[in-house]
Design a protein that fits this description.
Shape: globular
Strand content: 15-25%
Number of strands: 9
Radius of gyration: 19 Å
Helix content: 25-40%
Number of domains: 1
Low-confidence stretches: none
Largest sheet: 6 strands, mixed
Bound molecules: zinc ion
Oligomer: single chain
């Protein structure tokens, strides 16, 4: 019998200090064939899988997302998911830095809801921006995780492919995977952590080296998101692995590689201190 994979998501990054609330009009919705085309994965190669492209809501970075709109949107996505059950897998396309007043972990809230509507055998793969926030709730409710490895982001579609490939291998080949994560108590802006300059250039390059190790499936480093004043805000190392011991060791290594270079994270463009030189801008 053909396997079924459901695809959906909601993605934006929100500055919690902004008074400009994001609502329905701010989000573009990709669905059906448009969504498959956007993901740009060789779907037709897998004739033993039916892909169900539902809806992907995305908007440019902005202020907080309106709570009513957020709840209505995730309810609609969940209803569509229930209509498609039983399913074997879900690909979630998210950013990881949404801010909704009164909901401390919007992505975790949504993913936990989705998890509760599918069977235990259904596997969930999550794709994130590297400026996303990880939480225990998210980790507990997913089976695979992939985040961008470039900032500026030039590997968006490759990240979707990594998340999908892990999901497909899990469903078709029963490939073993656990997720290990470590918080890194460092929080800087994206302008201080570009992967085209050091130290992040080398740190991110090393992720690919770790991926080649036996027992390791896919390594990630999240810079986190500094423009939202939330308790979950943190950088983190996240490793998909077949062997827990190796996964833990590599996860610690990635976390330390970032921690040890924290004072080398500087603006890669001209910048001024607020009280010095600001008037010359
Ligand atoms: Zn980003």
């Amino acid at each position: 019998m053909k396997k079924k994979i459901f695809i959906c998501g909601i993605s934006t990054e929100c500055c919690s200090y902004s008074t400009l609330i994001q609502n329905k009009k701010d989000f573009e919705v990709l669905s059906s064939k448009k969504l498959l085309k956007y993901i740009n994965f060789p779907f037709s190669k897998y004739d033993n899988i039916t892909f169900i492209p539902n809806k992907f809501y995305r908007s440019l970075p902005g202020g907080p997302v309106d709570k009513k709109f957020f709840l209505k949107t995730i309810n609609n996505l969940t209803k569509d998911l229930i209509k498609s059950t039983p399913i074997d897998g879900i690909l979630l396309i998210m950013h990881g830095a949404m801010y909704v007043k009164g909901i401390s972990d919007p992505e975790g809230f949504f993913i936990k809801k989705i998890r509760s509507k599918v069977s235990k055998d259904c596997k969930i793969s999550l794709s994130f921006d590297l400026h996303g926030q990880m939480t225990d709730t998210i980790i507990k409710n997913i089976d695979y995780f992939a985040a961008y490895k470039t900032a500026p982001h030039i590997d968006v579609k490759q990240t979707y492919s990594r998340a999908l490939k892990m999901l497909i291998d899990g469903i078709l080949k029963n490939k073993k995977n656990h997720i290990i994560w470590e918080k890194i108590p460092v929080l800087v802006s994206g302008e201080m952590s570009s992967t085209i300059v050091e130290p992040c250039k080398t740190i991110y390059k090393n992720l690919n080296k770790f991926n080649k190790m036996k027992g390791v499936n896919d390594c990630n480093l999240l810079i986190g998101y500094v423009w939202a004043d939330t308790k979950r805000a943190t950088a983190s190392a996240i490793v998909n692995c077949a062997d827990d011991n190796i996964g833990k060791r590599i996860c610690k290594k990635i976390a330390l590689s970032y921690w040890n270079k924290r004072f080398k994270l500087v603006y890669d463009m001209k910048s001024y201190k607020l009280n010095k030189g600001f008037s010359s801008y």
